[in-house]
Design goal:
The chain is an alpha/beta fold. The protein is built from eleven helices and ten strands.
């Protein structure tokens, strides 16, 4: 189905669900964005690469790019409908669940032109979204995927592990199991390389396909031996559940070397994007650019 038709379909769907004639999804110059109040949501895709072969892209992480949107830019008919449906709009759209759904729909539509069946799209889902849905987690978005011609196996649901949610871990496990039962892959994002027993237990109980960490969480480890030990412990823990580790926000060579040294499966960051630019300029007979 052409992208414009998909945009119209999802606008109709949002309107029916929220009893509003306001159409929050826009298509301009081939790019899709979403309106949430005065916020405009766009997509930014980060390439996830094989650590030992960074030129091979295994998937993309979707990030929200947010900007303000001037209501005066709306067409007159849209503006009239927004004010006419103000009560319904404010009552229904101002929620984590609806924001997450709108953002993921925008990401999915923008992902279609670059999608490949062998690659995975990583989509963030707020833990509050998971806790806010009582059952059938992933059913709504499964219909979005089907409409776009993709399958749940093409998508990894990413949620953050935060000690503030420790007392809700059982509910989160149930919700993530619901996603998994529909074929989604599961990814846990660690805000820190934590050693609290409840977080490590949570990782083992969820048994995610991926565990993601950021170089920002490594910068506090000034002592090399401590960092090596911590990463080795994480590698062992994730290996027991047959999961894979992603190291993100790599901006310099030392983190690339660290990923290789500790058997990190996938990497992402500006370091590789810069190397891509260098590689594109160096194309030609006998020229080769190494990521290592």
């Amino acid at each position: 189905m052409p992208l414009q038709q998909l945009v119209e379909y999802f606008n109709d769907r949002f309107g029916q669900e929220h009893h509003s004639s306001f159409r929050p999804i826009l298509l301009e110059d081939g790019l899709v964005s979403g309106l949430f109040g005065s916020i405009r949501i766009k997509s930014n895709f980060l390439a996830l690469r094989h650590t030992l072969k960074p030129e091979v892209i295994s998937g993309y992480g979707a990030q929200i790019s947010v900007s303000t949107y001037d209501p005066l830019l709306l067409h007159a008919q849209q503006l009239d409908s927004l004010f006419h449906d103000a009560d319904a709009y404010n009552g229904n759209f101002e929620s984590i669940v609806n924001f997450d759904r709108l953002a993921r729909t925008v990401h999915m539509l923008n992902y279609l032109p670059i999608s490949h069946l062998e690659q995975t799209l990583f989509l963030d889902v707020d833990p509050r979204h998971i806790l806010g849905i009582q059952k059938d987690h992933g059913a709504y978005f499964e219909d979005v995927l089907t409409r776009c011609g993709l399958q749940t196996s093409n998508v990894a649901i990413v949620t953050g592990v935060n000690k503030n949610y420790a007392k809700y871990y059982e509910q989160l496990i149930t919700g993530l199991d619901n996603y998994r039962s529909r074929g989604y892959r599961i990814a846990l994002r660690l805000n820190d390389i934590v050693k609290e027993h409840y977080t490590l237990d949570f990782i083992e109980k969820v048994a995610p396909n991926y565990v993601s960490i950021s170089t920002r969480s490594l910068e506090d480890y000034a002592h090399g031996d401590l960092l090596d030990q911590t990463l080795a412990e994480l590698r062992t823990r994730v290996s027991t559940i047959e999961g894979q580790i992603i190291l993100q926000q790599i901006y310099e060579k030392r983190f690339d070397q660290l990923a290789r040294q500790h058997g990190i499966d996938f990497v992402e960051g500006a370091y590789y994007r810069v190397r891509d630019v260098i590689a594109s300029k160096a194309q030609g007979p006998g020229k080769k650019v190494s990521y290592a």
